[in-house]
């Protein structure tokens, strides 16, 4: 709201990013190293931003936050000690999974171990069929199961009974009884994901139970520290690209699994809206990984078929493709003497060799230093002075191991391999899904993204790169722009031609009540309705808008258009309705940011290498470049949290909001 002071804080693997927007609309940004207890770094970052803005933390009116607590728990497999309660005879659904192997032609490919080992998976005798409940569970048996759960030391419980998505009565009884008997969180599948497919529903429920204690404890610590500092209770970015009250997130922890990357994509979508671009590939390169996604017609692409560390998660989330290639990714030589980059990362401590904190392994950031993209006068995050010699030493050791002549040759190789990894990620969300990347702009952000963006665009024949003013902290900026969102789904399977309007509308009424119950001010929310459909006989669905009133013919036509776009053809076969979806949206006012130039633009020049060519390249202070200013490549544009590389044959133009648009791509 106008006049309010807003702050957004995004925690990454290496840095915690902060964006503060005071009433004068002049954006203040800050970076601090991420901490083991993320709440410590969050508060430190807010204090730093407030000090720079000259305001007291108690003057902050709204605090929005994205973190990596839940995804870290999944990746590092250090979540809660979880128990699973399921229908008798279905104890091993979680372990059996699907017949698809991670690698089709690898007969020795291993699936990840279940988050709940067999000894903590319990059965209850009950049965639900298509017509309803056939046999209810015995409460005494449930209490005996509760005792066994207590005895095994479980810290959280997931309940996923057969067909509970359709008839939840038995599952509700089990969950309620366990909540009475146990002093641990209980996640019930019909509350987490009321959708068919037993394995995916069970997996999603288990993930929710697995991360709930960590999320609950973390938000509790953060709320205490925020109260001490005098800032409001945070609202939390969810994986679906919308924010939610902290209380709601603590009850639906699985919704935070891709919290951080979602903020960046939302920030990029805001850039798309302000730049009048129809389609964007978002490219977020941080210290540990790179995230790629799509924005089409100003809308963020979402998916309900995500997988993290081999575990399916069916809740709606921003469709992000992640590769282990970030600024801190370590370069190494494999057994075949090939140069590899990542997925191992040097993290924030000790970090790349050039940080001067004791790191000795060569990283992508060290390669960028050797190539001249980052100079000795650069100060990462505005304060971290670089050790250029340490970067050269690390790359020299890599060159010796690889049989290359110099640190420069090794740096070129690291840069090319890292770019190849990221190019594959961009192809995965464009070419592999029927989109021609040449028709999209590439939005580059994150600490390292703008250094690599033009080179990636050239390799994909993309002619436009967009670098937002707050590119180094765009995920945090996206938190200021994100709307409040809540999702709900329910399976309603029927051929579309035979569906009754009453059954559809009554289900939508249930879904509407469900999503509005999570909204702080329900009267301010708009409810968007969607439906999942497929041709009869197909295995998977496409999601289309269902409109304010359900019209079967109109929905069928939207499905055919979506099928044509996704697969290149349509059929005359009957269409099956599978799931109904509702999303409650409370729109927030987009941040109005003033862009003001400060100081001299030209800082000097340095030797920079593009491909095999050396160029004496001018270096600019990006915040000294005013609206309409054009920069011819080669050029380096430095700012506090990031560096933009403009290669030869590229041109950069500054827009009114400070966004830099690069065009060209003829290359050398």
Kindly provide the radius of gyration, computed on alpha-carbon positions and rounded to a whole number of angstroms: 26 Å
- How far the N terminus sits from the C terminus, by CA atoms, comes to 48 Å
Q: Looking at the structure, what is the overall shape? A: globular
SS-derived structural category: alpha+beta
- Specify the biggest β-sheet: 9 strands, mixed
Task: Determine the mean pLDDT.
Answer: 90
| Count of DSSP strands | 37
Strand content: 25-35%
Low-confidence stretches: none
Number of helices: 16
Q: Share of helix among residues?
A: 25-40%
Q: What does this 3D model show about the protein?
A:
- The protein is 31% helix and 28% strand.
- It contains 16 helices and 37 strands.
- The strands form ten sheets. Strands 13, 14, 15, 20, 25, 26, 33, 36 and 37 form a nine-stranded mixed sheet that branches. A six-stranded mixed sheet has the order 3-2-1-4-11-12, sandwiched between helices.
- Helix 10 (364-371) crosses helix 12 (407-429) and helix 12 packs across helix 13 (449-459).
- The protein is globular and about 80 Å long.
- The relative contact order is 0.11.
- InterPro entries: ACX-like_C, ATPase_NBD, Hydant_A_N, Hydantoinase_A, Oxoprolinase-like.
